[in-house]
Amino acid sequence: MLPPPNLRHTGAYAAFRCIGSACEDNCCYDWSIPVDRRTYEMYQTCGDEGLRPQLRKLITIRPAGGIDQDYARINLVNNQCPLLHEGLCSVHAGLGESYLPEACASFPRSAVIIDGVQENSLFLSCPEAARLILLDPDRNRIGEYPAEDPPNRVADYAPVLDSTPYPDFHEVRELVRQLLRATSLPRWRRMVILARFCEDLNAALAGRGGSVAERIRFARQAMTEEPAPLPEPPAARLEILLELLVGRLSTEFTPRPFLECYREFMAGLDWGPLSTIDDIAVRHSAAGNHFARFEARYPQFLDNFLISYATRTVFPYGHRDTDPRTIQKIRIDYVENAIREQYLLLAVHYAAVRTLLIGMAAFHRGGLTAEHAVKLVQSYAKAYLHSGSYASHAQQILSSNGIQLATEATILFAE
Which of 71, 130, 174, 357 could serve as a FRET partner for 207 with CA atoms 20 to 30 Å apart? Predict the structure, then answer.
């Protein structure tokens, strides 16, 4: 048996503790709940005569071709887990923690094992995790820790990835972390440099120009150069962002907290049926002054959003090859333009969150609080980052609006 891997994670991960009934959200509401194969098979033979028929009735095996980690789904009733009884999990109460699906037992913790090192992170869709991540003044600095013995259950189903397909894999990820944390540069400048680097990296991996090591050097040099200003953002960029947001709202169930934030965003910009996109663009620009007050109080907030996203998704290496016979993804797979597509998604999520926060800041007349902002990001993460269809839908919208390259996506967050 292999020894447990060494660990890497942030202080937010180490500090996280579930706050239970004090939490403003509930993990058992508003999204589908995956059941891994091992837990599903345990349910078929469990000794609780009362629970066993419920488990068989309420859990459905997914169509063929899925992975063991997402072998079946609990069928929600009124958008909540039907195994929830008086606010408590009947599986946990009747059978014990070992009978919880892996997703329930580990959430909001997440892990991936890369080249023998376990990287732990937290999902922003948990309110307490979001608070710890987004408000961390140290900008989610990663530390190394000795292996746990026995290992935490989050490691049981952690994807085991091999960086072999990509040269300078670890150097690229370190550059991304350093760039996102480079507070001497304005955030828009960091995102522009990252866009250029991702395009260059995408080309290098396709054999179309230079080595990866050269691209890393060019990006580091760009961090020291005087930037050219971004062009004035056209009003059409708000139209694109609205299309990106509404496209998800109109096709899937959306948690109530996000809808509340969205209504504040619309009201803050006085966005009504007679408003033109030019009118909204003018109000959005003016609302930036309200948001600037929030950023002055919490300069780390959006940096932490980006750093957390990049860490958890192994950015910019998002595509993974999956062996359907096992829950573990066996390698990070090279697919043409995968690097570019990962940047486009990062840009969409960052621009959407920032735009929503600006509208909310206008609604609160400059009194946007950390509580308001955390609520927005947590509910956005639950609605958008956990959506199985949103990534491809967003790519289609960008393409239909002429945004196909990473460098073209900078229009979404030009300041």
Answer: 174
